[in-house]
Amino acid sequence: MIGKNPSSDDPNAQIAVKLKALFQSVQEEAIPARFLDLLEKLEAAEQRSTLQGKE
Amino acid sequence: MSSENQEFKREMLAALPSLRAFAMSLIGRHDRADDLVQDTIMKAWAKQDHFQIGTNMKAWLFTILRNELYSQMRKRGREVQDSDGHLTETLAHHPEQYGSLDLQDFRRALDQLPPDQREAIILVGASGFSYEEAATICGCALGTIKSRVNRARQRLQEILQVRGENDYGPDETSAPITSRAFVS
């Protein structure tokens, strides 16, 4: 198998190509705002609790 | 905010696109996949002291996500016994989210795999993990992952092959026989 190019008739190669295409179609999307907001909130909450801990 | 916290957040952000792609590949629905990603972020944030900066953030997040998914599925499984409607709703697919007909067809084939095989082939075949890393993420032996990936490939070939043949090949009675012969 080593050095063999994936041919278009090789069903395993076709599966690999489609699987990657499916995965990449989502991976290439921009990160939704809800997750950026969530991380901001988690960070802010942690900063508050750190400050309170110091008082 | 310590520099270690900032580094943690930065690495988590960098891994988010792959994490979403993993969730989508496993579940097939944007809304439920993103809910699962959100739960994973919260879990990971709470457990950040357990993460060592410089180790594999992506693998760590994928592990949390799949554990969370299976624990939610177990909970839902108990709910399903009481209400039939829920299962139908959960199993409804939204293939229009994928551009080409070809990918929609592949998505439906992927959905027909048992969850352990689907997860194995996504980790090794699309997420760029080695068999060893995939075994660690799934908490199983290396040989188990290898056999799951092989069975997933075989099953996908069967499903896609039979479908293709129904369009312009042998009739429905002979297709399963020819596709079995083709695979083995």
From TrEMBL, chain B:
<feature type="domain" description="RNA polymerase sigma-70 region 2">
    <location>
        <begin position="16"/>
        <end position="78"/>
    </location>
</feature>
<dbReference type="Pfam" id="PF08281">
    <property type="entry name" value="Sigma70_r4_2"/>
</dbReference>
<dbReference type="GO" id="GO:0006352">
    <property type="term" value="P:DNA-templated transcription initiation"/>
</dbReference>
<keyword id="KW-0805">Transcription regulation</keyword>
<comment type="similarity">
    <text>Belongs to the sigma-70 factor family. ECF subfamily.</text>
</comment>
<dbReference type="InterPro" id="IPR013324">
    <property type="entry name" value="RNA_pol_sigma_r3/r4-like"/>
</dbReference>
<dbReference type="GO" id="GO:0016987">
    <property type="term" value="F:sigma factor activity"/>
</dbReference>
<feature type="domain" description="RNA polymerase sigma factor 70 region 4 type 2">
    <location>
        <begin position="104"/>
        <end position="156"/>
    </location>
</feature>
<protein>
    <recommendedName>
        <fullName>RNA polymerase sigma factor</fullName>
    </recommendedName>
</protein>
<dbReference type="InterPro" id="IPR000838">
    <property type="entry name" value="RNA_pol_sigma70_ECF_CS"/>
</dbReference>
<dbReference type="InterPro" id="IPR013325">
    <property type="entry name" value="RNA_pol_sigma_r2"/>
</dbReference>
<dbReference type="InterPro" id="IPR039425">
    <property type="entry name" value="RNA_pol_sigma-70-like"/>
</dbReference>
<dbReference type="InterPro" id="IPR014284">
    <property type="entry name" value="RNA_pol_sigma-70_dom"/>
</dbReference>
<dbReference type="Pfam" id="PF04542">
    <property type="entry name" value="Sigma70_r2"/>
</dbReference>
<dbReference type="GO" id="GO:0003677">
    <property type="term" value="F:DNA binding"/>
</dbReference>
<keyword id="KW-0238">DNA-binding</keyword>
<keyword id="KW-0804">Transcription</keyword>
<dbReference type="InterPro" id="IPR007627">
    <property type="entry name" value="RNA_pol_sigma70_r2"/>
</dbReference>
<dbReference type="InterPro" id="IPR013249">
    <property type="entry name" value="RNA_pol_sigma70_r4_t2"/>
</dbReference>
<keyword id="KW-0731">Sigma factor</keyword>
<dbReference type="InterPro" id="IPR036388">
    <property type="entry name" value="WH-like_DNA-bd_sf"/>
</dbReference>
